[in-house]
Amino acid sequence: MALCTEQLTNRGPAGGRPGDQPPAIGATTPYPGPATQRGRPRPGRTGMAGMMGTGGGGQGRRVLDTDINMVPMIDLLMVTIAFLLVTAVWSQMSRMDGSAQVPGPSDGIDPPVHERSLHVDMRSPDRFVLSWREGQVVARSVEVPREYPALAKAIAGEWHSNGSHTSPGDTRRDEAVLHTADNTPFKDMVAVMDAIEATRRPLLRGESPAFALTLATQ
């Protein structure tokens, strides 16, 4: 019995340090509150365990590995690129060439020169009309019966007398414009084209058609 009393005296009260007086019999031991527990680490845990934050309740450190939503950034980038592309196109379309030129006689600027061309009009049902024009000005006009051999002969005579490029050293050709109606048969058009192509011009080496044929839009 003496041995047990000596051991209790050396150990001190439960949860206390050696040398502390044991509580009296019948006295109540105060329960250690949160402040007491906070100051003393629990068995099996280190003192740094209380500093590790869980991210809840506003205690401890916050978690740093959070996700960043990239969708709004991508949307903003796409809208910015589209805006830049559209404004670049509109800036080119909205440009206007401004000058101080007003209607009236020009000073030191020659008017455009229209080269003479032969117009072959086959819209009439009974004749062909050959006319030399310089732009909208008719310089000469002649009517030919609606016969293809007579047309080819008249075109050759007109080129020899009024053609602009008759020299063998000149590689350019005169222009012939064919006027047709909307309901003109295709075979008649081909016959008139052959009559125009029948006029040949000599060159330094060989020969070539005297006219470059085009179709009128009106």
In short:
The protein has 218 residues and is α/β, with parallel strands linked by helices. It contains five helices and seven strands; from the N terminus they run H-H-H-E-E-E-H-E-H-E-E-E. The strands form two sheets. A five-stranded mixed beta sheet has the order 3-2-1-4-7, with helices on one face.
Structure description:
Helix 4 packs parallel to helix 5 (186-197). The protein is α/β, with parallel strands linked by helices. The chain is 30% helix and 18% strand. The strands form two sheets. It has a five-stranded mixed sheet with strand order 3-2-1-4-7, covered by helices on one side. Strands 5-6 form a two-stranded antiparallel ribbon. It has five helices and seven strands; from the N terminus they run αααβββαβαβββ. Mean pLDDT is 74; it is low at 1-12, 34-39 and 44-56. The chain has a domain at 117-215: Nucleotidyltransferase, domain 5 (2-Layer Sandwich), CATH 3.30.420.270. A hairpin with a 2-residue loop joins strand 2 and strand 3.
